[in-house]
């Protein structure tokens, strides 16, 4: 974990002094419309001049701190073109799901498009190649190499685990959950850690399956990992519902609560997921309470 | 009443639903454990707990909610003497839903301390008062009340969507389950719903006699010495309570309140006493069966189509069948005061100048990182979406006037008739097949969608010996609801791209490119030229098919061409600004109250005002909250909705249901 901390800390400090990167003539003026690309840039030690929904990122994803120098230019799916143009960027970075924006972005600056979530179900593998690709384009190949190496180091199989399969989910409301299957980044990290995803279906697709609560009862042997935020109605449900309390995993305390994690992230999120899961599964059963 | 027939329908529905339920239980548990699990589940058996705390309470809540909606429907239909009245068509359910959405988003503490049922009831009552107020001048004629309810419903739905968007731009759960979800995890919801509904149901028994008399006319009732007003108010109040409690428990569920009484009557329940008995029973069974079908089709836990939306699949065809039988109880004449503009040319010129001035200002004034700035540096970025939005507004307005004149119905417009929704569905299907890059094919698909809905609405709404244009609107409600089911499914399938699909549905204009805007603008003069060529038809068609035919006009050809034009204009505009907004409706009214009645000036004036509304909405959406964007279509609705309601309340010349 030390290497992960070192990379992230290095990233953070480099961001706080963006002048260093500029002085080397290596860092172009970048605008980022995707959070996965934003955190990859930050981890490579480059602060973009602007990014979409920086406030939301800090609240809901928060893998890396975003420097104050980064201007918020609005919604990811509909950024403020005028603000972007006023910042005179050298390039605009988007993900492939934002391709509809290419025609309106192209007049402002060259658009760099990266694909992590393409329905192949392998976002972790895609994030590795995107990191190398992006690092090469901004003259940070070496840092990209270290980021990839640090990620791979954090993804070594978990030792001493009892081998139970795991259900990854978060609450949408009191009765509906978003379940993360093998195609999700969290699902990819889970298998890289040598753990089995209890949701056997799926594979391919976007990785997030909306389900209603009784679906959790379909895997009685599993251990549950619940990502935040937990909405108020879901907290009430957990306190009152006999069905919830009767779930074998809940009864046996095979339940872990994790903070919110952005489920369409890149390598920094993968590293954070690996660290969070590792720490959570090292805790004994029956200890986690909803935070 | 033919009890045998009615009973057999009930038994048939119940058997069907029960069979599906038993199949689901059989998959879950071996037969021997059913009874024990139903009453005393083994706390260590997940299957038994699921049966007892999830499966059975869901059936119970479906039955209870369905019964309440069926009862509410029959009460409303009897007191309003209107076979299409129900909480959903009168705007009551949408009002309750909006109140809950607002409370959840703005004051979560309020919902906890006051209680959701109370908040829902407040919203439902406000919506009912609004709908009745809007139709008061028409002496609550069935058509007027339905149209007012529809307006209230659309507006409340749009505000709910907007609040959700602002509160959480990426949370789709509102779209997925805002339409009513029956998922349960214990019996608490069932118990609290039962405690609230039971007293209301008992109170209805007291009203059976007054309700019987209400079926008679006013004079007959007075002859029996009954003051009807208090009984009517009490009935409306009880019906509103029933609907509000259901919404607060499981969300907005449409069409059950419509279908149950209709089915009861079709089975031979003629007297109100019989209907009060059979409608709740049938409502319970309809909702239960719908839910069983959804659960069986998608599998346990995978509730991909919320039951509240799935009821549209049953209810919409029912409206298609029932609408032709509906008559306007109060004949509405075209004798409203006609204001004529003194100097139409001069006024039009002023409007043109206003439009150009606003356009010039919008191109230059904007909110930048350093504050509000007047600059010409941003013109190149601003003109595509400003021009595209304005052109879309003009096309929608022109299409609105076309439809209004063709159908002789001042409320006809692309949005209310479901044509915009048809274009949206066409776009979604075409994009899924050919991909978003093939712009020409997507336009074709969108146009096909618009034309299909237009043909459907006209075929079903225009049948009968004498033209009854208001049927169009009712068929339009149904078409809109059916389209909504498709949109829900498309959002679920879209994965990470669902956000941009939703943004477009709400009228986001940020992605309009220069070429797209120019294409739309190029269509404006083409449409104008076509209208000039067809202006004689436009002037004659509102006289009615018979009169127009006497004047030597091939009615079929004229209507066909004009409808084609309206469909193409709607599709082009919808691709730019989404299906939301009352622009097509508002602009025609604006033109009329400004004194433009002959076809050509009316189309011109309406187009100018439609263009201006969308131009301003687009500018405001891009700047008021910069760098965050607000969808222009949503803003136009939020601004235009109250304006339109205001016009209807204040101006005698533009009453609902009269031109």
From TrEMBL, chain B:
**Principal location listed in the UniProt entry:** membrane
Q: Name one Pfam family in it.
A: FecCD
Asked whether the keyword Aminoacyl-tRNA synthetase is assigned, the reply is no
Q: How does it sit in the membrane?
A: Multi-pass membrane protein
> What GO terms in the biological process aspect are recorded for it?
siderophore-iron import into cell
- The answer to whether keyword Kinase applies is no
Q: Where in the cell is it found?
A: Cell membrane
Q: Which domain of life is it from?
A: Bacteria
One GO CC term, this protein: plasma membrane
**A molecular function GO annotation:** transmembrane transporter activity
Instruction: Print the keywords alphabetically.
Output: Cell membrane, Membrane, Transmembrane, Transmembrane helix, Transport
TM ranges are 54-76, 88-112, 118-136, 143-166, 236-264, 276-298, 304-323, 344-363, 383-403, 415-435, 441-460, 472-492, 512-532, 537-556, 562-587, 599-617, 629-650
* Similarity section: Belongs to the binding-protein-dependent transport system permease family. FecCD subfamily.
What protein name applies here? Fe(3+)-hydroxamate ABC transporter permease FhuB
């Amino acid at each position: 974990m030390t290497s992960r901390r070192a990379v992230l800390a290095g990233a953070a400090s480099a961001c706080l002094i963006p002048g260093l990167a500029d002085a080397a003539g290596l860092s172009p003026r970048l605008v980022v419309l995707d959070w996965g690309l934003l955190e990859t840039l930050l981890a490579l030690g480059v602060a973009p001049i602007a990014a979409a929904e920086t406030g939301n990122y800090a609240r809901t994803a928060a893998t890396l701190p975003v420097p104050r120098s980064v201007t918020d230019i609005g919604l990811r799916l509909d950024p403020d073109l005028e603000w972007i143009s006023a910042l005179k960027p050298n390039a605009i970075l988007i993900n492939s799901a934002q391709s509809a924006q290419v025609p309106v972005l192209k007049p402002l600056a060259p658009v760099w498009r990266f694909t992590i979530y393409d329905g192949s179900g392998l976002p972790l593998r895609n994030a590795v190649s995107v990191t190398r690709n992006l690092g090469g384009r901004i003259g940070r190949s070496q840092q990209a190499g270290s980021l990839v190496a640090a990620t791979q180091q954090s993804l070594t199989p978990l030792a001493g685990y009892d081998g139970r399969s795991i259900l990854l989910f978060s609450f949408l409301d009191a009765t509906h959950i978003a379940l993360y299957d093998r195609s999700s980044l969290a699902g990819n990290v889970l298998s890289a850690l040598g753990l089995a995803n209890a949701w056997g279906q799926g594979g391919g697709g976007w990785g997030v399956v909306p389900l209603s609560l009784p679906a959790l009862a379909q895997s009685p042997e599993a251990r549950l990992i619940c990502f935040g935020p937990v909405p108020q109605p879901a907290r009430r449900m957990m306190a009152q519902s006999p069905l919830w309390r009767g779930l074998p995993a809940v009864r046996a305390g095979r339940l872990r609560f994790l903070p919110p994690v952005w489920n369409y992230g890149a390598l920094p999120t993968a590293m954070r997921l690996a660290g969070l899961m590792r720490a959570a599964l090292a805790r004994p059963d029956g200890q986690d309470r909803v935070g | 009443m033919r009890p045998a027939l009615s009973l057999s329908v009930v038994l048939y529905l119940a058997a069907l639903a029960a069979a599906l339920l038993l199949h689901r239980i059989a998959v879950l548990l071996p037969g021997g454990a059913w009874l024990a699990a139903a009453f005393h589940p083994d706390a260590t058996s997940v299957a038994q707990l699921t049966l007892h705390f999830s499966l059975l309470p869901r059936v119970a809540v479906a039955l209870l909610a369905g019964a309440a909606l069926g009862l509410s429907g029959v009460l409303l239909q009897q007191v309003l003497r209107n076979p299409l009245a129900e909480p959903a068509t009168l705007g009551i359910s949408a009002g309750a839903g909006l109140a809950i959405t607002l409370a959840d988003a703005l004051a979560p503490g309020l919902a906890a301390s006051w209680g959701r049922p109370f908040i829902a009831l407040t919203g439902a009552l406000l919506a009912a008062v609004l709908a009745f107020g809007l139709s008061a001048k028409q002496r609550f004629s069935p058509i007027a009340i339905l149209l007012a309810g529809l307006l209230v419903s659309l507006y409340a739905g749009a505000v709910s969507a907007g609040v959700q968007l602002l509160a959480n731009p990426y949370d789709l759960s509102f779209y997925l389950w805002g339409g009513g979800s029956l998922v349960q995890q214990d019996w608490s919801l069932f118990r609290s719903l039962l405690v609230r509904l039971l007293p209301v149901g008992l109170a209805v028994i007291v009203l059976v006699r007054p309700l019987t008399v209400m079926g008679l006319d006013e004079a007959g009732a007075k002859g029996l010495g009954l003051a009807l007003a208090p009984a009517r108010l009490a009935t409306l109040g009880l019906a509103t309570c029933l609907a509000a409690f259901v919404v607060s428990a499981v969300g907005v569920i449409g069409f059950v309140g419509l279908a149950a009484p209709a089915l009861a009557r079709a089975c031979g329940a003629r007297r109100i006493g019989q209907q009060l008995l059979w409608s709740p029973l049938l409502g319970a069974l309809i909702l239960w069966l719908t839910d069983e079908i959804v659960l069986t089709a998608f599998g346990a836990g995978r509730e991909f189509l919320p039951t509240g939306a799935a009821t549209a699949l049953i209810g919409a065809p029912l409206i298609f069948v029932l609408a032709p039988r509906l008559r306007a109880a109060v004949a509405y004449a075209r004798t409203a005061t006609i204001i004529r503009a003194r100097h139409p040319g001069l006024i039009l010129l002023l409007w043109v100048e206003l439009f150009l001035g606003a356009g010039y200002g919008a191109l230059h004034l904007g909110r930048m990182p350093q504050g509000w700035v007047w600059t010409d540096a941003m013109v190149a970025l601003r003109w595509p979406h400003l021009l595209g939005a304005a052109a879309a507004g003009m096309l929608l307005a022109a299409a609105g006037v076309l439809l209004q004149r063709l159908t002789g119905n001042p409320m006809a417009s692309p949005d209310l008739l479901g044509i915009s929704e048809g274009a949206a569905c066409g776009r979604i299907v075409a994009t899924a097949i050919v991909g978003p890059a093939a712009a020409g094919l997507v336009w074709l698909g969108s146009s096909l969608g618009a034309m299909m809905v237009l043909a459907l609405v006209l075929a079903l709404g225009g049948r009968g010996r004498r033209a009854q244009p208001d049927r169009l609107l009712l068929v339009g409600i149904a078409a809109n609801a059916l389209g909504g089911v498709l949109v829900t499914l498309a959002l679920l399938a879209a994965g990470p791209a669902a956000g941009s699909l939703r943004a477009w549905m709400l009228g986001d204009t940020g992605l309009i490119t220069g070429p797209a805007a120019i294409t739309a603008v190029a269509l404006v003069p083409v449409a104008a030229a076509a209208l000039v060529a067809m202006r004689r038809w436009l002037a004659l068609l509102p006289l009615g098919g018979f009169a127009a035919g006497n004047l030597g006009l091939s009615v079929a050809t004229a209507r066909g061409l004009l409808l084609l034009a309206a469909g193409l204009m709607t599709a082009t505009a919808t691709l730019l600004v989404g299906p939301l907004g009352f622009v097509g409706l508002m602009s025609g009214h604006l033109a009329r109250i400004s004194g433009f009645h002959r076809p050509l000036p009316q189309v011109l004036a309406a187009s100018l005002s439609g263009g201006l509304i969308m131009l301003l909405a687009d500018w405001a959406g891009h700047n008021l909250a910069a760098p965050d964007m607000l969808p222009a279509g949503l803003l136009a609705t939020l601004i235009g909705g109250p304006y339109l309601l205001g016009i209807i309340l204040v101006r005698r010349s533009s009453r609902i249901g009269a031109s």
